[in-house]
Write a structure and sequence with these properties.
Elements (H helix, E strand, L loop, with lengths): L8 E11 L5 E13 H6 L13 E2 L12 H11 L5 H5 L2 E5 L2 E2 L7 E7 L5 E9 L5 E7 L8 E5 L13 E8 L4 E10 L2 E14 L2 H10 L3 H18 L15 E2 L5 E2 L1
Parallel strand pairs: 8-13
Antiparallel strand pairs: 1-2, 1-12, 2-4, 3-5, 4-6, 6-7, 7-8, 9-10, 10-11, 11-12, 13-14
């Protein structure tokens, strides 16, 4: 697969969510996300990405990882600790799929760090999850099971929905075409089978002043709207009779690897 140009991109698409049990509940919302080439941005900042400063749309390193001043440095440290390092990794691009801050407000239900080798194939993906309780956890996916279009699993260890227990596993599938379409699927299974099916999709194009204006005016309060929609859909699920679960303590470690293994 050809590597896209190493310039910031924006994806316009849709978020879909379907609960299969104990009652069926489904919704879909349009929206957008950024796809940022983090190594390229480290070498040369671009005006389209307002970094660590206020703007209508902006990116702040503190919204990722441990909340430090350099999110890419956090990721590279994590990869080194896991033995995912070397010239091929250093020379490959790291694409971050994430929501920008909108008018200074931030909420990112999930972001994806796509770590490429120099040849363009995937070396690792970090799925970074935030819940509405202000907690963050990341799932590090790597190994022979990781490839575009192939399913890879991780044990669920982090509380997200008050209507789901922290048990079972996630099935991730990452798809990206040469035409610039991206689809990420995350399905949650418990011991009895599928519980949730979710996806984030979008058609990528260059992040320019024009595409940024189109995104902002199309969804001027997008990140705040995400929080409102989460609570609205939660209310609808509760009205349907799905019981609430008590929130457990978050995992001790920020990152878990394959099969629930903790990563410092």
């Amino acid at each position: 697969m050809n590597q896209p140009a190493q310039r910031p991109l924006i994806g316009f698409g849709q978020v879909r969510h379907t609960r299969l049990k104990p009652v069926r509940h489904a919704f879909a919302y349009p929206g957008y996300f950024w796809m940022l080439p983090m190594r390229a941005l480290k070498r040369q900042a671009v005006e389209e990405v307002k970094r660590n400063r206020w703007s209508w749309l902006s990116f702040h390193d503190a919204d990722h990882g441990l909340g430090g001043a350099d999110a890419l440095a956090w990721l590279d440290g994590l990869l080194r600790d896991e033995g995912i390092a070397g010239p091929e990794i250093d020379q490959g691009e790291v694409w971050l799929q994430t929501y920008p801050r909108v008018l200074g407000h931030v909420f990112k239900p999930v972001s994806f760090w796509f770590v490429h080798r120099a040849g363009g194939d995937l070396a690792a993906v970090v799925a970074e999850v935030n819940n509405t309780f202000g907690e963050r956890h990341a799932y590090l996916l790597h190994g022979q099971g990781l490839a575009w279009g192939r399913e890879i699993t991780a044990d669920k260890v982090f509380h997200v929905s008050p209507f789901c227990d922290v048990e079972g596993c996630y099935r991730f599938r990452f798809m990206r075409t040469d035409g610039g379409r991206v689809v990420v699927r995350i399905d949650h299974d418990d011991a009895q089978g599928p519980v949730l099916q979710t996806s984030v999709s979008g058609q990528l194009e260059a992040l320019t002043p024009g595409s940024a204006r189109r995104a902002f005016w199309g969804w001027p309060l997008m990140t705040l709207g995400v929080v409102v929609r989460i609570h609205w859909q939660a209310l609808r699920v509760w009205v349907k009779g799905v019981p609430l679960r008590a929130k457990p303590a978050p995992p001790h470690d920020l990152v878990t690897g394959p099969h629930g293994q903790s990563t410092p």
